Structure formats: C-alpha cells, structure tokens
Amino acid sequence: MKNLFIDILAFGALLSSVLVITSKNPVIAVIFLISVFINAAGYLILLGIGFIGISYIILYVGAIAVLFLFVIMLLNIRLSDLLEAGSQYTKNIPLAIAIGLLFIYEIFTIIPFRIHDVSLISSLLNLITNLNELFLTSDISTLNVVYNTINPILADSTFTNFTQIQALGQSLYTFGAFWLIITSVILLLAMVAPIFITHKSNK
Amino acid sequence: MINNNLILIILNTLISLIDVLLVLLPVLLSVAFMTIIERKQLAAHQRRVGPNTVGYYGILQPFSDALKLILKETVIPSQSNKILFYLAPVSTLIFSLLGWGIIPFGQGLTLFDFSLGILYTLALSSLGVYGVLFAGWSANSKYAFLGSLRSTAAMISYELILSSAILIVILLAGSFNFTTIIESQEAIWFVVPLLPVFIFYFISILAETSRTPFDLQEAESELVAGFFTEHSSIIFVFFFLAEYSSIVLFSCITAILFFGGYNMPELFVNNTFISLQAVVLGLKTCVFCFMFVWFRATLPRLRYDQLIEFCWLNLLPVAVAFIILVPCILVAFDIAPY
Amino acid sequence: MPPSGGFQQIRYKRNLPFRGPSGVVILAGVTAFCGYGFYRIGLGNLEKRELQREKAWSRIHLVPLLLAEGDRDAYRRQHAALEREKEIMKDVPGWEAGKDVYHNPRYRPADSIVVL
Where is the chain membrane-spanning (chain B) (predicted)? Predict the structure, then answer.
C-alpha cells in the first residue's frame, strides 16, 4: 500500500514538473511547481525521513514558492505575447525528439531497468494473475512484497533511539561544524545584497 | 472473498474516520459559537447588546448566518480563473482544520502523536498563505489582488516571528512533540520564564490571523473586504470558517505552548471517565479567544507600512535577541534538556 | 447668554501623564519573574535527565534477559529447521543434513524472512 502511494507521488511529481514547463500562464506554472514540491515532500515522508519532508514544505512551499509568486504576480507579463511565442515552438519538435531519444538511450544503457520493477505497471499487466490469486487464496497478504532481512535487532545494540533531528544535530554541529559556519556566512552575504540594493539613502 | 484480513483493514479505516469526526465536529461547533461570542463580546465592550433575537440570548445566530449565506446567490466574476476561485477558500479551510490533528486533549489523547508536531503546525501555517494569495489573484480585480498581496506579505513577515517564538519554547522543552511540551510544563508554565517571548508570540498570532490591530487588509470600513471581496455565498463561508477556526486553533496552541495545556494542580481524585484535562484545555483556549476579541475591541488599526516596519525593524531584532539569549542561559547554568 | 468673563478654556491637547513604574523597575521585575521561571525549568530539566538516565540503565539491566530469550528462540528454530531438513531428505542417499556449504567454520546466524 505504501509502495502504491510512493509510486503515485513520484508520478505526480514528474507530471507536475512537465506541466510547469508547458503551462502558458506563469502563475499556473508556479502552482505546478508547488505541486512538485508537495509531491516530493510526501515522497520523503513516506520514505521515513519525516523531518526533511516537512522542512521541504516549510521552506520550499512556504518561502521560496511564495517569493516566486510575488515576483511573477507583480511583473507586467502580457499573456498575449506569451501565447504568440508559444505557437512557434512546434517547429523544433523533431530536434527535441532526437535529443530526448539520445538521452533516454544513454540512461537506459547504464541503469538496469526492467518494466517489472515498476510495481504499478507490473501489477496492471499481471492484473488477471493478481486477482486470481486473491480469489483462490485466503490471505490478502499475497499483494504485499516479501523482504529478506539479514540482521535482526539484538537486545544489546540499541538503548536510546534518537529522533531524526537529534541524529542530524549530533553530526551536523560536531563533525560538520565548519561547513555549517561557512554556509551561514554565505547566507549572510546573500542577505546583504538585497538590503543594499533596496536601501534608500537619505540624501 | 470476505476474509479476516480484509475485515480488519475496513474496520481500522472506519475507526480512524470516526476518530477524526470525534475531533472535527466539536471543533466546527466551537468555530460556529466563536462567531457569536465575538459579536456578543464586542457588543459588551461597546456597551450594547449583541444579537439576541434568534435563540436564547442569540445562541442560534451562527446557524441562521450560515443558512442565509448558503441560500444567497453565488456570483462568480466571468473573467476570473474559476478553478482557483473555488480552490483557494477550500484549501484555506482544509489547512485550517488539518491543524487540529495533533492537539492533545489529554495525556496522549491525540489523533496523531507526531514526534515533529510543531513542524507540522508551522508547515500548515505556511501553506495557509496560499489560499489568501490565490483568492485575491484569481478574482481578477485590482483591489482584491492588492488586498491579497498585502495580506500575504504581512502573514509571511509575522510567520518569522512566530517560528522564532515557537523555536524558543522548543529549546526549553527539548522536543517537537506537543505532549512532551505539555509534560515539561509540570515544572512551571512556560509563560513564566518566557514572558517577553509570549508577548511577541501573541502579537505575531494576531497578525497571522489578520485580526485587529493588523487587519487593514480586510478593514470592513475602508476596503470592502480585501482579498475575499469577490467571493460570495458558500465560498465566503469557507473563508469565514477558516478565519475563526485558525483563531480557535492558535488560542489552543497558545494554551498548549505557554500555559501548560491540560496541566492543572490535582485538587481531587477523578475516578469517572470524564477527562478533566480536556475541560481544562478548553477553558484555557476560551481565555485566549476572549483576549483576541478584547484586542479587537480596544486597539486601533495599524497602517500597512507601520505594520511591516514594526515586524522587520522592531520585532525581529527582539526575536533574534531572545533566540541568542535563551540557549546562552540554558548552557550557562547547564539546565538544557537532553 | 454666555456667563460673564466667557467660557473656560477647553483643554484640547493630549494628556498622557507618565504614571506607573519607571523603566528600570519594570525591567528588574520582569527579570526577577523570568529568573524564577528559569530556575523552576532548570529543576524540571535536571529531573528529566535523571529520568532518561533511569530509563537507559533499566534497559542495560534487561539486556542479559533479552539476549538469553533470543538465544533460546534462535536455538529452537535452528533445530526445528534441521529436523525439517532431515525429514525431507531422509530418502536421498549421501545427504548430510545440516552440512555447511561454505568452508568458513565461523558461526553465522540464520537469515530471516519478514513479510510486511
């Protein structure tokens, strides 16, 4: 069940990203960008790292996409110009198909990919087999996947379990302290620039 | 094909749904009665009687309001983006009501005892900004658009202060979990060591819900209604419900974060099944709802540039100062929660 | 008719007298209040640390019991698997049940299969 949701969220993220590029209205494009972020955040939460998933929503959707939206809504974009430019893109389609095919060939040469690995498609193609199993056996667990584990959790290995934030903090503030300070200095520099640009000096 | 496992799955889903309904129905009722409380209390501050015709002392007024709004004619501007026009208030209401999922009404009595509860609340308040933004933009009217941009800018500015205040509470408590924060307040309510933090937290809550003195965006006497000018009957009900639901939700969160949640001294032994802790939480929430309306009755409005200047030039340095001060105190006296 | 000498002067300027405690008094008061609060929070946090220490030590003390239980269970399962193998392959000539296919004599705990 969780795998089904992960597949749906991944597919939703990809679909939204395609729609970001092909939308005519820029605000609709940013809406689909927000949808990409929310799908990615849901994917991360289902993967088990809830902290990073929710911080995606707080930071990307809550701050960065709002920034994009403000800029796009306050610019004076004339929709007729955009629509006119869009109709001239069809003459580039053969070139686009050629480059896309080249890319897909490269990727699928390197990555071992079988259509059987995509559980959604394989469960659709084997629909009759799955339904038959469901009717004949008496247990709904045949729809689930069997995992092979090697190490059971022994009683002498875990005394305290840290939450994800504690684990992140333990490593970030001790081993990664130097990098943390460097990134904070970079953010400070990034903050100084807009303040300097928008500062009106009283003559 | 009906077998044991399938019945278990269906029963689990049904019980989860009933749990959610058990929380949401009283919440919606409380939101409805919050409106009449506001009107009666405003009237009391202004030395008049509020609505008193509909029920005993006007109790049934929200239901007649809702009925009137539902039966009104829904006017949709023809050049508006109809999908977003309908979706924006719906999303605002959804994110307002989703925040009730992790509020503890007793010891561990939550819909979902999330270990990252505070982050969930902050994420929902970040997402609630979008309803405002898209409602104003999709109405295709300059005044609604301007109102929504101003509302959004005010909300994201004060969200910073809100996050800072909540972060300081988390530093004292040591966990993001709401139940853990309430249990840590058995020592003393967090309002006592963090009184200045509570002050600017309350200011930022007033600004998040666009209440006076920060409600120039929907000033009912100046602009017609700000970002929801074009939204009529049922859609307006959604915005209305979302605003009052976030008022009650933020009052509840204030009671949980600063005033001990459901903690109270044990005066007598309670052997019944009635959980007094939920009653205590409710009473504390009522106190803060009263304070919301009291602020609206007493204070004048801030002009919009004064509002933004207040946030970025006056409140933000105070918030940053406290973010630096509190960990320093905790580390200096070695009283940090590990 | 207005009284003789005219009406009195109307007071139109703002009158906001400076009453109440001065700034230093408020600051000292809030500092004392917050200081008391931090003192109580400090006591509470130290108590929380002791509670966590107690929890960790109780888990440490439970380790022999749990390990022994796990060992008993693993031993029983391994013998049951061996018996099953002997039962299945009893007619096959030249088959030693439980013979290791690897040359490494080190003990390796059995794989486990989890159906989620």
Answer: 6-37, 83-105, 117-139, 160-182, 188-207, 234-262, 274-295, 307-333
Closest-CA residue to C109 (of C63, C69, C72, C78): C78
Indicate the number of domains in chain A. 3
Determine, for residues A159 and C60 on separate chains, whether the beta-carbon distance falls below 8 Å. yes
Long-range own/partner contacts, residues B270-276 (CB < 8 A, 24 or more apart)? B275/B105, B275/B106, B275/B109
Cα–Cα distances in angstroms (integers) from residue C21 to residues A107, B194, B268, C25, in the given order: 74, 21, 40, 6
Give the predicted TM-score (pTM) of the model.
0.86
Integer CA distances (angstroms), B141 to B230, B238, C55, in order? 8, 20, 61
Residue A153 inside a domain? The answer is no
| Domain end position, chosen among A78, A113, A128 | A78
pLDDT in tens, chain B (338 residues): 556 777 888 898 999 999 999 999 999 999 999 999 999 999 999 999 888 888 888 889 999 988 998 888 888 888 888 888 888 999 999 999 999 999 999 887 899 888 899 999 999 999 989 988 898 888 888 888 888 888 888 999 999 999 999 999 999 998 899 999 999 999 899 999 999 999 999 999 999 888 877 776 666 555 566 676 777 788 888 888 899 999 999 999 999 999 988 888 777 777 777 778 888 999 999 999 999 999 999 998 888 888 899 999 999 999 999 999 999 999 999 998 87
Find all residues with CB under 8 Å of A160, minimum gap 6, and list them: C52, C55, C56
Predicted interface score ipTM higher than 0.85: yes
Give the best residue of B12, B86, B126 to mutate against chain A (max A CB count within 10 A).
Answer: B126
Q: How far is C35 from chain A (nearest CA, A)?
A: 28
Which residue range is the domain that position A186 belongs to? 164-197
Q: Which subunits sit against A, judged by 3+ Cβ pairs under 8 A?
A: B, C
Interface of A with C (CB under 8 A): 141, 144-150, 152, 154-156, 159-160
In this structure, are A131 and A67 located in the same domain? no
Closest partner CB to C38 (pick from B191, B329, B338): B329
Neighbours of chain C (3+ CB pairs under 8 A): A, B
> Domain for residue A115, yes or no?
yes
B149 part of contact set with chain A, CB < 8 Å: yes
Contacts of B335 in chain C (CB under 8 A): 38, 41-42, 45-46
**Residues A1, A73 within the same domain:** yes
Same domain, A27 and A69: yes
- Measured between CB atoms, does B122 come within 8 Å of chain A? yes
- Please identify which residue in the block is written with the tokens 């049904």: B14
- Residue C8 has a CB neighbour count (10 Å cut-off) of 7
* A155 within some domain: no
* Tokens describing residue C106: 């080190």
Q: B187 at the C interface (CB within 8 A)? A: yes
Residues A35 and A9 in one domain: yes
CA pair distance B215, B223, nearest whole angstrom = 11
CB contact under 8 A, C48 and B174: yes
Domain membership flag for residue A152: no
- A160: chain C residues, CB-CB within 8 Å: 52, 55-56
Extents of the domains making up chain B: 1-71, 75-332
Same domain, A112 and A48: no
C68 part of contact set with chain A, CB < 8 Å: no
Find, in chain A, the residue whose alpha carbon is nearest to that of B83: A28
